[in-house]
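Aim 2 progress update. The chain analyzed this quarter is reproduced below.
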Amino acid sequence: MLAACELCPRRCRVNRTAGQLGACRVSVEPLVASAGPHFGEEPVLVGRGGSGTIFLSGCNLDCVFCQNFDISHAASGSPASPEQIAAMMLRLEGMGCENVNFVSPTHVAPALAEAVVLARGRGLRVPVVWNCGGYESVRALEKLEGLVEIYMPDFKWADAEAGRKYSGVEEYPAHARAALAEMYRQVGPLKVNPRGAAERGVLVRHLVMPGDLARSREVIDVVAETAPACAVNVMGQYRPAYRAEEYAALRGWPSVATVRTLRDYAASKGLVRVD
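Predicted structure tokens:
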């Protein structure tokens, strides 16, 4: 899948094993921007010891409002082999982290899968979190089965045109829905241990956009239909960032009342709120 890259629905078809670069701007070897305990994630991920986040540089999306643009839109960070990433995973577990959380992993899935196998072989016990943008290849996800305990995809858009304009990809809703169905098939609804930390399952994130650009109720409907009783975080953290000021529709903020109403709507559809 790397020799003519099809790791995500973009299907760039470049030979990354020969150094060619596609939309993600990263070759075969991952670039790690940072690795450490993170206490700003959802409470079910943070638990008592924090989420052991490994931030990967590059991204298969091109969101013009990205709040992590300095990482996702630049090939920054240090090259890391699967062996080195496995060592990071074990170090994070040793620090007391509740999980190992791969942030923006889609475009470097083969190396991360190898790292998980190596770390598990050396005694890693905490769950692996696949913290992604939702624009995933079902075929690639199938190859991750048994390696990932917690899938945490975004579901950004119910409108394909908005996905094209603001995230730079084609047919985002259809691909996100198919990916969510495969994730849910693999790990099911979110399960939490007696300490309040997630152990397995799917947790969907949805960022409420100004002016209802994402068509949030439709997103919630699709999540409820595709993954019944799924955990969901309807997020109110949007702020204009990166290139958002270039787009009039992205210059505002969603209201607190709007976010609250959407969270209640998600609960009414049988989804489990973790906001």
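The first strand starts at residue 31 and ends at 38. The CA atoms of residues 141 and 182 lie 7 Å apart. These observations will guide the mutagenesis experiments scheduled for the next reporting period.
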